[in-house]
Amino acid sequence: MSGRLDQYVARRDFDRTPEPKPGPRGSGRKGNPRFVVQEHDARRHHFDFRLEIGDVLASWVVPRGPASESGDRRLALRMEDHPLEYVDFEGEIPEGEYGAGKVKTWDIGAFENITTAGNQSVPATSALDEGYLVVRLKGKKLHGCYALQRTEVSDNEERWLLIRTRDEGDSKAIAARHAGGLREDAG
Ligand code: MN
C-alpha cells in the first residue's frame, strides 16, 4: 500500500504546518482500529471523519458532521488518506497553508468493520474500494452503526454519504433504498 500518502505529503510543507509527517509504516499496530472525528475551523468550517484502514486513515470531509438520528444521511467527500499519526492531531495550521485553521478532536474511539456481502464479512480495505462500508463506532459521542456509501465519482472527487443506521441489517436496507439519487438530509 505504499504511495497512498503521496498526496498528503505533496499538499503540505512540514516546516510550516504542525501536522504530523508520516512515520515509518507497516509496523503492524496492535489493537482495534480507531476512528476520529475532528472539528476543523478552516475557511469553511467542517468535520473530518477518519477510519484506520490498512496502515492509513481513510478520510472524508463531512461538512455538517455525522448525524445522530437513525436514517439521517450526511454528505461526505473523500479526501486524501492521512497517516495514522493524525488520529490524535490537534493544533493550528497556519494561514497560507493547506487547510489553514484550528483542528481539534470532536470524538475518538475504536471501531469495528461489520460490512457483509451475502453473509460473508468483507475486509475493510475491499469495502472501501467497493464503495460500501459499514462500521460500528465506539466513541464518546458516537456509538453505533454507520454506513458509508459512495454515490458519485468524478474527475477528482468522490462523493459519499455517511448514514446513521439502527443496526447492521438496517445499514444494508438503507444503502439499497437510497442507491441512486442519493442526497443528504436537509436541515
Ligand atoms: Mn479538514
Describe the structure.
It contains three helices and eleven strands, in the order αββββββββαβββα. It is mainly beta and 187 residues long. It has one domain. The strands form two sheets. It has an eight-stranded antiparallel β-barrel. Strands 7-8 form a two-stranded antiparallel sheet. A hairpin with a 4-residue loop joins strand 1 and strand 2. The protein starts with 5 loop residues before the first helix and ends in a 9-residue tail after the last helix. The model has no long low-confidence stretch (mean pLDDT 89). Manganese (II) ion binds next to strand 2.
Q: Structural class of the secondary elements?
A: mainly beta
Number of strands: 11
Determine the N-to-C terminus distance.
39 Å
Q: Any ligands, ions or cofactors bound here, and which?
A: manganese (II) ion
Radius of gyration: 16 Å
Give the helix level as a range of percent: 10-25%
List the helices and strands and how they pair.
Blueprint: H1 6-10, E1 34-41, E2 46-53, E3 56-62, E4 73-83, E5 91-93, E6 101-113, E7 116-117, E8 120-121, H2 124-130, E9 132-138, E10 143-154, E11 157-165, H3 168-178
Antiparallel strand pairs: 1-2, 1-6, 2-3, 3-4, 4-11, 5-6, 6-9, 7-8, 9-10, 10-11
Bound molecules: manganese (II) ion (MN).
Give me some keywords for this one.
3 helices, two-stranded antiparallel sheet, binds manganese (II) ion, eight-stranded antiparallel beta barrel, 11 strands
What is shown here, in short?
This protein is mainly β and 187 residues long.
